[in-house]
Specification:
Helices cover about 60% and strands about 10% of the residues. It has about 90 residues and is mainly alpha-helical. Strand 1 and strand 2 form a beta hairpin.
């Protein structure tokens, strides 16, 4: 069982390393490829976790979404202890 667990862990690490190397290679290729093509988006046809292989930075609205969500939701009130509640009264 220990051998199986160790080998399984090693296989997972190798698969993760391979995926990372593949992504880095693909990202580099697409950056070079797109210098001439000038595509705004390059999409994948696979059912991977993300279908976007390349996108112009101007389409990244992550910061705007975070700011909007932060404005929309107030932080949860700090929890007080029973003693602190009694001291307030």
């Amino acid at each position: 069982q220990e051998l199986q667990a160790r080998l399984g862990s090693e296989l997972e690490k190798e698969a993760a390393d391979f995926s990372l190397a593949l992504k880095d290679s693909l990202d580099h290729f697409l950056a070079v490829y797109n210098k001439d093509k000038k595509f705004d988006l390059i999409l994948s046809k696979s059912d991977a976790t993300s279908n976007i292989l390349y996108a112009e930075k101007r389409y990244d609205i992550t910061d705007e979404v975070i700011k909007g969500l932060n404005k929309r939701y107030k932080p949860a009130p700090a929890k007080t202890t029973k003693k602190e509640d009694e001291d307030k009264n």
